[in-house]
Structures are given as structure tokens and as C-alpha cells.
Amino acid sequence: MFKGVRPILYGGREVWPLIEGGKGVAATNHASSGAWAAAGGIGTVSAVNADSYDPDGKIIPQVYRALTRRDRHEELIQYAIEGAVEQVKRAFEIAGGRGAININVLWEMGGAQRILHGVLEKTRGMVAGVTCGAGMPYKLSEIAASYGVSYLPIVSSGRAFSALWKRAYSKAAEWLAGVVYEDPWLAGGHNGLSNAEDPKVPQDPYPRVKLLRETMRSGGISDDVPIIMAGGVWFLRDWNDWIDNPELGQIVFQFGTRPLLTQESPIPQGWKDHLTTLNPGDVLLHRFSPTGFYSSAVRNPFLRNLEARSERQIAFSMEAAGDHQYQLDVGVKGKNFWVTLGDLNRAREWYGHGFTTALKTPDNTLVFETPEETKIIRKDQADCMGCLSQCGFSSWADTEGNSTGRLADPRSFCIQKTLQDIAHGGPIDENLMFAGHAAYKFKQDPFYSNGFVPTVKQLVDRILTGD
Q1: Does Oxidoreductase appear among the keywords (predicted)?
Q2: pLDDT of residue 436
Q3: Residues of the chain with pLDDT under 50
């Protein structure tokens, strides 16, 4: 029998222990997060390149006119601040004094600290807390505390939190409102798998969260400071053993995937429709993201294309050595690329199928692509606007020289371009479509039968029943 959950005190008021996950680049906006707060929960505005509006209420396309990456990066930061401020104000109005509004930022997004300062400065009294992951956000506590705002770091292990606590967070302990444990095998978007963990061998979250709580206790953090379980959360009844469990302390639940399919959700109809067709295994944990992190997305033709590109890959050496005794004679022009006999034959076969351009990667390999795809890759790399602190795809870095010092990697993609496109009605087969690994439950859950799409309020009410 489902125990049920009780309200918690957050941001000075009682709220349901239910958080809407903040999904970057316009997959969560004022309409969804304001409605979530109005239903008594904690809504989360994504402050990752959020949309702004013209006087008629139409979305302003984020067009970059500057000629240099550095100047385009400045345009990006202005878009990001203006958009997030607009989203927060609108969400706060919709909430009408109920629930609470958080914002979500990615620490590894380009200009993250400047954007966070810019947004919090202009939304004083509206934002209850900042959730932040994708990296090790050491300065998060200092920035949030300077505006009198709570912070909720997103981690995937007790060890990661321990490092953050010892180095920075213990100095602003009173503003720590919770710690988000994001399951790296189940959550959508970018995932915090460490090199010691096997992406193909998921671990039970319970012992990991128990260890996180023990780590928090050793730092003197009260059990009243909640751990927010994120990733794989669908039915609350599945987490019955976690509720009121003295080993775990206060637990709050974050929903990332389920709020995608609501009437207020800003994602386009095609994306919503596709979510209801997914089967187990249709979401892939992959390494193609230009961030260098693992991430989880629907295995659509866009992702399959990246998988296939990486499979058309061979190692090379600049001189004949070891097994590399055969000079490559396809895809390259007049350069000494030495490969194995087997790889030479594979390259010739790919060439015969139209993959006639060999592109160098940072790992001394070549990937074979069509001339048409190669043009797109080169243009996307040239159009970089510095949306990440470090980008493997374009070699941009948020540093003085604006370079990672590594070759741009053609096995990746421009994440800003594809996320903006799919969020604003672009083809769902040609873009990255983030989703958590439980997305197949849309097809199985009777709540969504006969094409039913709930309002956010109906979804929150349903979740509170245990279903």
C-alpha cells in the first residue's frame, strides 16, 4: 500500500516534495514550471538559452550576426540572460504565490557564471533555488548565497558531493536546500558517469543514495535537508521503501520525463507524439555529446547516423610502423596515412558506397563521411557560438585563447543547433531528442491511454496518488 507523501517547507512555504526537472534549451519553460508551482510543487525554469518574446508574444529566434566566435559568444550570453529572466517572471506570475520556482543551469555551459549572476540580479524575490549539474559547480554556493537564494547541486555520487562540500559548500551551508542525486543510468540528458563506472552495468540507486546521505551526515548536514531522487522516477509507489526511511532521511522526487507530455509542456507536438511510441531500450546512453559527458536520448535516425559515422572509423599512423604498412589511397589527398590491410579494404568499401571524405579526429583516427554531410559538419563547426565552456565538436573553450588545443571532433555535433531546432518544431528524426530511460512507460501507463494528455495539475494530482 502506498504511504503517500507529506508537504515539506521550502522557500518559506509548504510545497509538495515533487520537483519538475529543468530541461535545457526550451524543453521546460514558464508555462510548464509556473503550472507545476501553481499545483503546489517546485517548478524549474531552464536557464539554458531560454526563449525571449517580442511585443506580440512571438518567440525571438536566436540568430547570431557577429563574425567571430568570441563576439557570437557575447550574443549568446545576452540571449541567455534575457530569455531566462523573461521565463522566470512569467512563471512566477503563473504560480500566483503557490509552490516555488527554481532555475536550472549547466555548469559547463558557456558563460555559466555570468549568466547566473545576470539572471539572479534581475529576478530578486522570484527564484527560490538554483539546481546545477553538468560539471563540478564549486562557485554555485557562493553565487547563490550572494543573492539570498538556495542552491541544489546535482551529483551522481557521494564522492562528488564530498568534494564540493569540502572545497566550497561548507562555507555557505545555510543556503544548501537539497542535493539532487541524478541516476547516471536512468536520467535523460547529460549523465555523471565516472570512469570507474560501467555504462552497461546499472547500479541500484538505493545504496548510492544511502552513501550520499552518510556523506552529508559526516559533514554535519541535517537529515531535514532533502536528497532529491532524479532519473527513473515514474510511479511514487515504486519508491515506497524510500519514503520516511530513517536510513535515507528526507527524500524529494524529481520528474524530468513525465512533464514532457502535458498540455503546458512547450515541446512540439511531434516530439510529444513520438514519446508515446517508445519501447524499452529506445533511449540510448551514448558518448557523442560535445560536452564529453555521457548522455541519454531517443535512438532516432539522428543518433543512429552518429553511431554509423563512428563505425566507419579506422586508426592511422603518419609513417609505416607495426601493422600500419599500407598507404591509404581513398578519402585523403596526397598525405601519408598508413593503415592496416584490413582497414585499407574497409576504407575502400566505404568509399565505394559514397563515403568519400576522410575526416581526422583528435584520436589519430579517420571517419568516412559523404561530401554532403562533411559540408554540414564544417559549417556547424565554423558557426560555433561558444555555448559550452569546452566543446569537443568545435574546439571552442571559454578561455583566453578560446581553444581546447585539440582537433575539432567530427564524430560529435553542434548541440546548440540541434536542441534549438527540435524545441522549435524542427524534424524529430534529424535532431537530438533527450528523454529519460523510463520514457517507454508513456506507452504502458493507462493514464495516457486513448491519447490522453494531462494538464500539469492533473499530472501532479495523479503522481500524488502513487500512480
Answers
A1: yes
A2: 94
A3: none
Instruction: Output the DSSP codes for 188-208.
Output: SEEE---TTS-TTS---HHHH
pTM given for the model: 0.94
Q: Residue 90 belongs to what domain range?
A: 8-267+442-464
State whether 415 and 446 are in the same domain.
no
Report yes or no: 254 and 271 within 8 Å, Cβ to Cβ: no
Domain count, the chain: 2
> In 231-384, which residue ranges form alpha helices assigned H by DSSP?
269-275, 301-311, 341-352, 371-382
Strand order in the sheet with 294-298: 189-191, 294-298, 283-286
Question: Per the domain annotation, does 3 fall within a domain?
Answer: no
How far apart are alpha carbons 433 and 282 in whole angstroms? 11
Cell digits of residue 221 = 548536514
Which helix (H) or strand (E) segment is 444 a member of?
Answer: helix 441-444
CA-derived radius of gyration, the chain: 23
Kindly give, in sequence order, each residue whose CB lies less than 8 Å from that of residue 413, ignoring residues fewer than 6 positions away.
288, 290, 306, 380, 393, 432
Could you tell me the CATH number of the domain that includes residue 177? 3.20.20.70
pLDDT, residue 134, reads 81
Question: Dmax of the chain from CA atoms?
Answer: 72
Cell of 369: 563521411
